[in-house]
Amino acid sequence: MRALIFVPPKNTMQSGQAKSKHWVLRFDQRIAKHLDPLMRWTSNDDTLTQVILTFDTREEAIAYAERNGIPYDVEEPTPRLRAPKSYADNFKYTRWTNWTH
Question: I need a surface site. Which of 6, 60, 85, 93 has the fewest CB within 10 A?
């Protein structure tokens, strides 16, 4: 039972950074998924894959995994790049392209 510690990416439907500052410990899948013969759904008998633990810091998640003897991998978050933008730049006289709607 191996675990992955990571920061979840922000939801594509949200513009802010809410709920994306915590660290998550999620267990890997140990048993392969199988197809349900009646409903044709994919299912899994491994209930440990449903367990998702959240922590405030990376160190807390690592300490939890080490304290319970869980082997883990840490996935570092990629920094979010933001290009500085100004609404007034749309109306500058030195624009290279025409301003259109």
Answer: 93
Q: Is the pTM of this model over 0.85?
A: no
Find out whether 64 and 7 touch, Cβ atoms under 8 Å: no
Nearest to 8 by CA among 55, 47, 51: 55
Assess contact for 7 and 22: CB atoms under 8 A.
yes
Average pLDDT, the chain: 85
**CB contact at 8 A, 23 and 6:** yes
Residue with tokens 């950074």: 17
* Rounded-to-10 torsion of CA 34, 12, 48, 29: 50
